[in-house]
Amino acid sequence: MNILEKIIQRKKEEVSASKSQVSIQQLKDSEFFGRKTQSLKESIQTKSGIIAEFKRKSPSKGIINDKISPLEVVSAYESFGASGISILTDQTFFNGSIQDIVNVRKHIVLPILRKDFMIDEYQLYEAKSIGADVILLIASCLSPLQVKDFTDLAHSIDMEVLLEIHTTEELGHFNPDIDLAGINNRNLKDFKVDLEHSVNLKNQLPENVLSVAESGIYSIEDFRYLKEKGFDSFLMGEYFMKNENPGEKFAEFVSNITV
Description:
Blueprint: H1 3-21, H2 24-28, H3 40-46, E1 50-54, E2 57-58, E3 62-63, H4 70-79, E4 84-88, H5 98-105, E5 112-115, H6 121-129, E6 134-138, H7 144-156, E7 160-165, E8 180-184, H8 195-202, E9 210-214, H9 220-228, E10 233-236, H10 238-241, H11 246-257
Parallel strand pairs: 1-4, 1-10, 4-5, 5-6, 6-7, 7-8, 8-9, 9-10
Antiparallel strand pairs: 2-3
Helix pairs in contact: 4-5, 4-11
């Protein structure tokens, strides 16, 4: 069993437990469920294009940074020009929590992406209830029909969808209603990074879709290479979070890419 299969197996257990504790109606009655969401698509086109991530840990790298608060990090991201915020909510493998989004929602205006492994419609209602604006759908975890159904549900509750793909076969998960198409530079099954592979996939997407390069961007050179190849947005976490002060590292990065 590879790491992705282990994550999905655990995620099914977590969702089942959550459903037994909090109903969808209770999620709909929550404080944030009725709020007007912010558009990540629009923000990408008017700011830096960077979706900056708060990330404590990953299965491949272990602890990255567990000494700093989400609010301190994402407030700095917002101040220095991020287009959006990504927050990991998986607890078992990434040390994340849905409470991390709740704790920052009232303090920032930027759209928030709930970064998790979405396998059940319950998680979409949960994402809206905690203040997220965008959900991630990972093609390798879902069928094309599930992607379509989850996209329709997300739109019905005023949320946008970022579809993540990594293989040529997964291009078949894309449908015209997808808001953003992300290409993961890192293979979730073995965690190898291949930027050239991502560029080849990006060139097979419809021309009018906003493309997001995800993960494995470790330098300004990586960023510039992907930007030159036509990517509209860049989801980056580890590059900033591995530093003692992720906000300062983000500010330095934005300064360098705008020179």
